């Protein structure tokens, strides 16, 4: 149902949410920090209409996007014809092991329970020392979403606890670099969280 719902709302979403951060300077700041740290190709996992992919490119990164929804990808390719987008499932990415210098997972796990987020898969595709930036709704609850962007949809939205999220990422082989929590903005329904992490480098660990 997630894929079908996003296929349905794709054109409206692209029109209603055209900008990467829409006046949210804290969100933009942590993404700039990520851009300074990332080295090598960066994947926007769950890229939607490509607004974050485009912003990553503007920040100087070699960025491309992956998304489950063909409707969203159609919008991304129209808006950013100079960038690459491909259809894919974040739980089984069609990417080589350790092929990414960085990854951004920007609110693309909001329809998963915290324990379902595929941290092992994110870990697999990142190079040792590579950075991952994760944005999510902060809390410990879930609720139905039946209307979005002017359309009827059938979705469940999850808010994730930040400590549980860090624990799950750490168990998969990530280190926490920084965290940011902010109060809710207009139409956000609750506070928001941002985690900057890196993949442990076994060679560096053995040398210490």
> Major sheet: size, sense and barrel closure?
7 strands, mixed
Order of helices and strands: HHEHEHEEHEEEHEEH
Distance between the termini: 47 Å
Radius of gyration: 16 Å
Q: Largest sheet, order of strands side by side?
A: 3-2-1-4-5-9-8
So what's the overall shape? globular
| Average pLDDT rating | 89
Q: What's the tally of helices? A: 7
Can you count the beta strands? 9
Provide a descriptive summary of the structure in words.
This protein is α/β, with parallel strands linked by helices and 208 residues long. The protein is 34% helix and 31% strand. It contains seven helices and nine strands. It has helices at 2-16, 25-37, 51-58, 70-79, 119-125, 162-172, 202-207; strands at 42-45, 63-67, 85-87, 100-106, 126-137, 141-148, 151-159, 174-182, 192-199. A seven-stranded mixed sheet has the order 3-2-1-4-5-9-8, sandwiched between helices.
